[in-house]
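Recap from last week: sequence in, structure out.
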Amino acid sequence: MEKGKTPDEFAPNAAVYDASYYERMYRPHWFLRNRRKYLERDAALIRISRPEPAARVLELGSARGDTAFFLSPLVAEVVGIDAAGTAIEMARREAERRGTRNVSFEEADARDLRLFDRGRFDLVLLADFVEHVEDDVLVPALVESRRVLVQSGGLAIYTPNLDHWAERLKAAVPGLQQPDHIAVRTSGRVVEIVEEAGFVVEDLFFSASPYPVVGAIDRWFSSRGICRFRTCLRARAR
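Predicted structure tokens:
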């Protein structure tokens, strides 16, 4: 976010993203945030990121830095950006506490990556970012991502899938959807936006819901869109 902007200029629901929001992130819960959920998320992130020791990674919407810290031992550098200054402050404090030297964080709008030169990164990662922004943010963010990537650089996306039964239920019942998820999209729509921004999809797969019992149903019927919990996508810049 540019200096001097008011919070509501970077998101229509910017008030949601206060300090308490980030403090609650990833708080364990036997059903909603169980151990299996994060193990499967980590596995999906590795598959779509394809980390290499020399890779330079840019993460859009890095929040308090959890994903950046997860990838940091596997790559040369991770830069996280977020429009919420509160998130950046928390991430920087955690980086200092950990002594992590190959991770840095910048307060910036994903639509404007002028902080970075053309071809600066090997991979741009959007992990739990797409559902937080509408097309007027996502589309220019992807165009900017293509600019800062090396030739044939990678794009990795991990996001909820509106085709899944749980997301359909949230969309149909007022008040059920969490207030930070303002733009959950179908996997088809995500692919469409990615391709229109100048990328070629190389890998597209779906995780099952991690919830007890219902996750097993997703795995049994994984060929059906209604049982595809998360859209996991890897693409390369044309």
